[in-house]
Amino acid sequence: MSDRREERDDDRRRARHAHPDSGGPGSGGRGSGGRWSRSSTSRSSTARTPAENAQLALLLEVAGTPKPGNVDRERDLEDLRFEHFLAGAIGAGDGLRRAERGGTVGIAFERAVAGMSRQSGGNTQFGCLLLLTPLVSAAASGDLTSAGVERIVERTTAEDAVRFYRAFEHVDVSVAEPPADADDLDVRRGAAAEPALRDRDLTLADVMALSAEPPSGDTADVDSGEDIETGRDSGDRIPDGNAIEWTTGFERTFEAAESIRIDEGPIGDRAARAFLRILADRPDTLVATTHGSDVARVVSRRAAAIGDDLHAAEALAEAFRDERINPGTTADLTAAALFVALERGLCV
To answer: Are the C-beta atoms of residues 33 and 42 closer than 8 Å to each other?
Structure first.
């Protein structure tokens, strides 16, 4: 009985997306500076539900090429292949549909990660799902705006934080070492961190705020004057890019979504150009975690040097693969931006 009810709910959501005047999540929203209209989009692009658009965004992100250092339809990594990402996108569907139906962000996210993990490659889209889950909730509520997603974030609870930590038990995730005084909040502890989270009554929004703040005196600027020639790392910590999105109303996500929406050409090319712009704008968290902050800043400069030139990006992609440079957080933001662009009328 519940399955039939969920099918009817999905049909209603598709109907709302298919008719922009119905006032559903597909009817538009307010970005940073203006109203959005879906009246010029085709019926086929607006008939998908938010969860379906989220899965499509995951597929479009990995299909976009070249995205230097990351898996795409033309490049695999040593331990991750294109098909792993396809399987991860399909597997995440149950959790994304839970978010669409109004489920709590923490439970929806953990379910999405658990489904994503059902392939042999390991962690393919953990960070993508961390961004997509609240965005899907906001879209399903009819308010896919910075303010709308902020309201979703503000409603998170300690239980959501516990579920977020449990998600780390499904796949291995590269994370930075926690501050010396926060060992009990190390995300790698998974469910074992539950007592600390509940004792401090930390919501998922609180956890993201802690991750978004680098230690005093640190900076995430691309041009920081570090001594690259000596090979020494300045020690400055690059703050978690995904956590920053959670604490700033997904500002970069919405900006990148607009750049994709107004760009021209195949969506795979648009995604690749958006990826390059995001990487050039700010050092990548995963690169900083695996190679150090100084290398992450140099990687951003190298991306900035080629601009939107996809031909030059092909050579950079080969170089980053040889150097084992993997800007995974940049890919997370690209997937989130593709989702917002799809919800706001990007036609596939």
So the answer is: no
Q: What is the pLDDT of residues 15-27, one digit of tens each?
A: 555 443 333 333 3
Global confidence as pTM: 0.84
Can you tell me the distance from the alpha carbon of 301 to that of 314, in angstroms, rounded to the nearest whole number?
A: 16
Q: Which residue has the tokens 């607006």?
A: 46
Asked if 340 and 28 count as a contact pair (C-beta separation under 8 A), the reply is: no
Distance CA(205)–CA(193), nearest Å, equals 16
Q: Which of 217, 257, 241, 216 lies closest to 296, judged by CA?
A: 241
Angle between the N-to-C axes of helices 105-116 and 126-140, in degrees from 0 to 180, rounded to the nearest 10: 140
pLDDT digits (tens, 9 = 90+) for 110-132: 999 999 999 999 999 999 999 99
Report how far residue 39's alpha carbon sits from residue 21's, in angstroms, rounded to the nearest whole number. 9
Would you say the C-alpha torsion 48, 167, 141, 256 has a positive or negative sign?
negative
Among 221, 208, 214, which Cα is nearest to 249's? 208
